[in-house]
Specification:
mainly alpha, two-stranded antiparallel sheet, 17 helices
């Protein structure tokens, strides 16, 4: 999805209409023209503008998911990242996602009222599917972070005139039922992938997210293990039948010259007109970095030694990027003394993108990648039966083999073959599951997946040892509902 400041345009139109209406001599006269969701969302393009707006609030230059450093997932070394949450901890996620949903529901209400009746049925179904996919996407984040939540849809009465109550919060399983219903509809009605519109979700994006929903339901807190088979089969469908494919080299996945490649199924988009975070935001002191993207040294040390490590993490780097053949420094001897998020740094960025603080750094960070689907399949196939199947072993090993494969880049250590052991069919069910979760940790680092894996596998305390788990309590598995809303609908235990 290209990203524009749609809401500013809409607000200006509304303001002009208000001024025009109040300038009439008869102040009680109803204006002839009134902009409402039902009257605005009359074309597919107008509906698409709302979808763009719904994503804008989730990923912007200095806000939203521009960084995953908020989460205490065992990878991030963001200052203050730890456990023992207070009532104000990470309240922003609640606000971001419900604001996004508030952009989507009016479109669905307008379509239900016949706003697109002059268009073909398949186009209307595609637009409706996009809306329901984006709504499910937002609620999937919310239910994992907050548990029991209100599910506001196009039929929910205005929450201003009809405030929500404690009874408005649905049980977790009921929220997942609604998420599934939206994604099943989206998968059945959205169009196929169109490479010319890489930011737009499609039926395969919906199937990939649905596989993740099934896998999450199979694990904590619901532990509905029958969903493992559903996750396995949905992931298999995506791997076998979708137009997406794995790239042969890890060196190509995050390069700014190769954004929205064949492996990327859905991503946070940015453009020259609406830039994302500049390269110096994620960089070591030697490059004038601003401190975002800091990574825990203990985690980096546990990462298998392989070419992938030196593309996904920044553990050593040239002191002067304009002289790559000159002196290099490793992180223990660097100015900051810590490694960095390599997916947002050179060599994935060009030297100029890395060193400038003005404008777009060119990074397109994935929300869903085909490599994720391979690992979902491996986990689900193992857990759905009595241990790993040959296909589950083959699919996780596809990811490991790629990680171990040497490649010639500006980074010397990428030319050295990796030594990470492959998975084997002789592994026990438990050992293979641990192998898959560890592989997800390595492959999907800094892509917002790790924290949710930590929650569903109930390892929050373990990954934050030894330094960030001092204030751990069991209630940390759910975030606090922001105080203003908690006054009406109640809060989660422990707050």
């Amino acid at each position: 999805m290209k990203r524009y400041k749609i809401n500013l345009f809409k607000s200006s139109v509304i303001l002009l209409l208000i001024l025009a209406g109040t300038s009439c001599q008869k102040l009680t006269e109803a204006p002839e023209g009134k902009l409402t969701p039902a009257s605005f969302y009359q074309t597919p393009d107008q509906c698409q503008s709302a979808f763009v707006g719904s994503m804008n609030g989730l990923f912007s230059t200095w806000g939203g998911y521009g960084s995953d450093g908020f989460f205490p997932n065992g990878q991030n070394a963001w200052p203050g990242t730890g456990l023992g949450y207070s009532v104000s901890t990470m309240n922003q996620f609640w606000q971001w996602h419900y604001k996004s949903i508030s952009n989507i529901n009016p479109v669905l209400k307008a379509i239900k009222g016949g706003s697109l009746k002059s268009y073909s049925a398949d186009l209307v179904a595609d637009i409706t599917g996009q809306a329901r996919f984006l709504r499910a996407f937002n609620y999937f984040f919310l239910v994992r972070l907050y548990g029991k939540i209100p599910f506001i849809d196009e039929d929910t009465p205005d929450v201003v005139t009809t405030p929500l109550t404690k009874e408005s919060r649905l049980e977790i399983a009921a929220v997942y039922d609604k998420i599934e219903a939206d994604l099943v509809f989206a998968a059945a009605n959205m169009y196929d992938r169109d490479p010319s519109t890489p930011g737009k979700p499609n039926k395969w994006t919906a199937k990939g997210l649905l596989a993740k929903v099934y896998l999450t339901r199979a694990t904590a807190p619901l532990n509905e293990t029958a969903n493992y088979a559903k996750a396995r089969d949905m992931a298999d469908d995506v791997i076998k039948n979708s137009p997406y494919s794995l790239l042969p080299s890890v060196t190509d996945i995050f390069k700014t010259s190769n954004t929205n490649n064949s492996e990327v199924m859905f991503a946070w988009q940015s453009s020259e007109q609406y830039p994302s975070l500049p390269g110096v935001d994620n960089a070591p002191d030697e490059w004038g970095g601003w401190g975002d993207g800091a990574t825990k040294a203990l985690w980096a040390e546990s990462y298998p030694e392989q070419p992938r490590k030196h593309i996904y993490l920044l553990t050593d780097w040239p002191v002067d990027l304009y002289n790559i053949g000159g002196d290099w420094v490793d992180y223990p001897n660097s100015g900051s003394g810590i490694p960095w998020n390599g997916k947002r740094c050179w060599p994935n960025l060009t030297v100029d993108q890395q060193l400038t603080d003005a404008g777009n750094n060119g990074v397109i960070m994935p929300i869903l990648r085909l490599a994720d689907v391979y690992l979902m399949y491996a986990e689900a196939a193992n857990m759905a039966g009595n241990g790993p199947t040959q296909l589950a072993v083959d699919r996780i090993n596809t990811i490991i083999d790629r990680a171990n494969t040497p490649s010639v880049t500006e980074v010397p250590k990428t030319s050295i073959p990796g030594t990470e052991p492959l998975a084997t069919l002789s592994m026990s069910k438990e050992t293979f599951d641990q192998k898959v979760i560890a592989e997800r940790d390595y492959e999907l680092c800094f892509e917002f997946d790790r924290y949710f894996d930590v929650l569903r596998k109930k390892i929050l305390k373990e990954v934050n040892l030894p330094d960030d788990a001092n204030d751990y309590k069991e209630t940390d598995y759910l975030l606090p509902i922001p105080p203003l809303d908690a006054k009406f609908i109640g809060n989660n235990p422990g707050y």
